[in-house]
Amino acid sequence: MRVHNAVVLVTGANRGIGSALVTAFLERGAARVHAGARDPGTLAAVTGQDPERIRPLALDITDPTSVTAAAATAPDVTPLVNNAGVHAMGHLLEMDLRDVETVMNTNWLGTLRVLRAFAPVIERNGGGAVANVISVGAFAGTPSMGGYPASKAALNALTQAVRLDLAPRGIDVHAVFPGPVETDMLRLTTDALPAMGDFPRASAADVAAAIVDGVEAGADEIFPDAFAREIGDEWRRDPKAVERRLAGLA
Ligand SMILES: NC(=O)c1ccc[n+]([C@@H]2O[C@H](COP(=O)([O-])OP(=O)(O)OC[C@H]3O[C@@H](n4cnc5c(N)ncnc54)[C@H](OP(=O)(O)O)[C@@H]3O)[C@@H](O)[C@H]2O)c1
């Protein structure tokens, strides 16, 4: 879909890839960007770029009341980027189960909740696009990454399922698989798993620009950085090689 003049919603827009996405959509001529954040007070630096076109939006994707209210406050959305996500390191058989629940509840169920609220909004506006920010981590279960790879694999399956449901409603659905991106989340991961530090990292700005390119190109799968493209190619050729490489990080 064309981003020029569109009204966009980005979840988790106060930092990291989400904040870079707000900038990228503005640069491509979006008419307005609703910047979703659990605490809109954290959006000052983001909205300060262009207070006319960036609207702060209170949105906690794990809170049904917050999601319903956001859909009423932002009734003009056509592209939606489900970017908000969390990570908690640990081994599944030993870590605090509440951390696993938070990761699944946010990355999978929270994204589904936003989709259910906003699909009718996008449809009423004549159709548009949804981009779900997954991860190359969806392709293998790295032992020390707790519930994160499973949450992203589940999000990939959700993305494939709703693509078929939403196509007749005029909504394109994109699966985004970034590799390591310089953000707070990556720092949390590499602190606990130094082997991750050997992987090349992309900047949030480059990844955001590639996501907007993929939405405009109508790509089902978007691999927005060089490492992601390498993993994507390998996964198509030899999924076991990807498992050895990512799960083998330990
Ligand atoms: N960085 C990477 O290497 C990488 C690689 C592949 C995929 N990804 C994915 O990219 C997305 C963005 O990650 P990032 O690297 O930018 O991480 P980040 O810097 O940790 O930012 C995460 C964002 O999600 C928001 N968020 C968390 N829980 C939320 C909730 N319940 N409701 C609404 N917003 C919530 C956070 O808001 P608060 O400030 O309120 O916590 C923050 O804005 C995530 O889905 C992540 O899994 C990241």
Ordered list of secondary-structure elements with their pairings:
Layout: E1 7-10, H1 16-27, E2 32-37, H2 44-47, E3 54-58, H3 64-73, E4 79-82, H4 97-124, E5 128-133, H5 148-166, E6 171-176, H6 184-192, H7 204-217, E7 221-222, H8 226-237, H9 239-247
Parallel strand pairs: 1-2, 1-4, 2-3, 4-5, 5-6, 6-7
Bound molecules: NADP nicotinamide-adenine-dinucleotide phosphate (NAP).
Question: Which key phrases capture this entry?
Answer:
binds NADP nicotinamide-adenine-dinucleotide phosphate, Ketoreductase domain-containing protein, seven-stranded parallel sheet, Rossmann fold, 9 helices, 250 residues, alpha/beta, globular, oxidoreductase activity, SDR_fam, oxidoreductase
Summarize the structure.
The chain has one domain: NAD(P)-binding Rossmann-like Domain (Rossmann fold). Helix content is 47%, strand content 13%.
Q: What is the CATH C level class, in words?
A: Alpha Beta
Low-pLDDT segments, ≥5 res: none
Shape: globular
Query: What is the number of beta strands?
Result: 7
Give the SSE order as H and E letters: EHEHEHEHEHEHHEHH
CATH fold label: Rossmann fold
Which sequence of strands runs across the widest sheet?
3-2-1-4-5-6-7
Q: What CATH architecture do you see? A: 3-Layer(aba) Sandwich
Structural class: alpha/beta
Biggest beta sheet summary:
7 strands, parallel
CATH homologous superfamily? NAD(P)-binding Rossmann-like Domain
Query: What's the end-to-end separation, in Å?
Result: 40 Å
pLDDT averaged over residues? 97
Domain Ketoreductase: 6-174
GO molecular function: oxidoreductase activity
Keywords: Oxidoreductase
Protein name: Ketoreductase domain-containing protein
